[in-house]
Design a protein that fits this description.
By secondary structure, this protein is mainly beta. The chain contains three helices and 22 strands. It folds into two domains: about 5-15 and about 135-295, no CATH class; about 25-130, no CATH class. It has helices at about 40-60, 190-195, 270-285, and strands at about 5, 25-30, 60-65, 70, 80, 85-90, 90-95, 95-110, 115-130, 135-140, 150-155, 155-160, 160-165, 170-175, 180-185, 205-210, 225-230, 235-245, 255, 265, 265-270, 290-295. The protein has a six-stranded mixed sheet, with helices on one face. Mean pLDDT is about 80; it is low at about 5-20 and about 65-90.
């Protein structure tokens, strides 16, 4: 039985989709590496918070008091009642969304009183959120049941994905590292016609990578997914791309088959993947992305 196998890496942050004028923003953030957290995971978190700080400085922070929502100017502290929609990124509410890095994040590691600290400096483009996105559901699991919901996996363990949306639409799924983005849905042997005609109906649960609960009539084209790492611990990020309009995936390199008949899926360099996503955001106001952080341990 064929299985999809990934060697996993640390991945980058992403966004929702809004076709408006973007602004260049920049910030830095540093934090202490806590026990049980890898340097890689701490650096990723520092970069996430740096992006949040950059957006807050440009677009403001959301403050909730009673039944009113306010946008706070970071410099003056003045609060203005707002009817705009806000987005939560890295546990902080901001009324903006990160579009892309314009420079590779600068990472630093240093000691402070015997504690290890990391610092991340980012530069990128962000955009103010004006319209409410729909709330899609996407969860990773280690068995095809919602009770198996998890973001922590052991080496060579199977991963399943649950998806549900309040509106009809189309889906593609990628796993991205800092070098390469792997296309894990559409499945490797799905034809273009099968992909563009596979509409996901509103309020219905769909389980990916599960032949026992298929949403496709031809079970033989369903890929099973195993997560593999060659390090003690790896972090990666899953991108679930949704649109009410049919999606056209980017040009991908061919899949690579291993000696045991498992394979590494079709892929695209991360930089090109990000440009593809940005192009979708510009052209399709219904497009959005759900991001899932996953850890794999030996």
């Amino acid at each position: 039985m064929k299985k999809v196998i990934f060697v996993t890496f640390c991945v980058q942050f992403s966004f929702l989709s809004f076709a408006q004028k973007s602004k260049n923003v920049a910030a830095s953030y540093q934090l202490k590496v806590e026990n049980g957290i890898s340097i890689e995971a701490a650096q990723q978190k520092a970069c996430d918070f740096a992006r949040v700080e950059a957006m807050e400085a440009e677009f403001g922070r959301v403050v909730i008091q009673g039944n009113s929502t306010y946008i706070e100017n970071i410099e003056t502290g003045k609060k203005v009642e707002s009817k705009s929609v806000f987005n939560m990124t890295a546990d902080t509410y901001v009324n903006a969304e990160w579009l892309e890095d314009t420079q590779k994040p600068k990472l630093e590691k240093f000691l402070n009183k015997d504690d290890i600290w990391v610092k991340c400096s980012v530069e990128g483009k962000a955009i103010e959120i004006k319209n409410a996105p729909i709330d899609i559901l996407a969860e990773t699991m280690d068995c095809p049941k919602i009770s198996c919901k998890t973001t922590d996996f052991q080496n060579e363990e199977s991963m399943f994905l649950l998806f549900k949306s309040p509106k009809d639409g189309f889906v593609s799924v990628f796993l991205d590292d800092r070098t390469t983005s792997f296309c894990i849905y559409p499945y490797q042997n799905m034809s273009y016609e099968q992909f563009v005609n596979q509409k996901f109906m509103a309020q219905k649960e769909y389980y990916f990578f599960d032949k026992s609960n298929p949403f496709l009539s031809n079970k033989s084209i369903i890929d099973e997914l195993n997560l593999v790492t060659e390090k003690p611990q790896e972090s990666n990020r899953v991108f679930v791309v949704f649109s009410e309009n049919a999606l056209v995936i980017p040009v991908l390199d061919d899949k690579k088959q291993n000696a045991d008949l498992s394979f590494i899926p079709r892929s695209i360099p991360s930089e090109k993947f990000q440009k593809w996503l940005q192009n979708i955001r510009i052209k399709d106001k219904t497009a959005q992305v759900k991001i899932l952080d996953v850890t794999i341990k030996k």
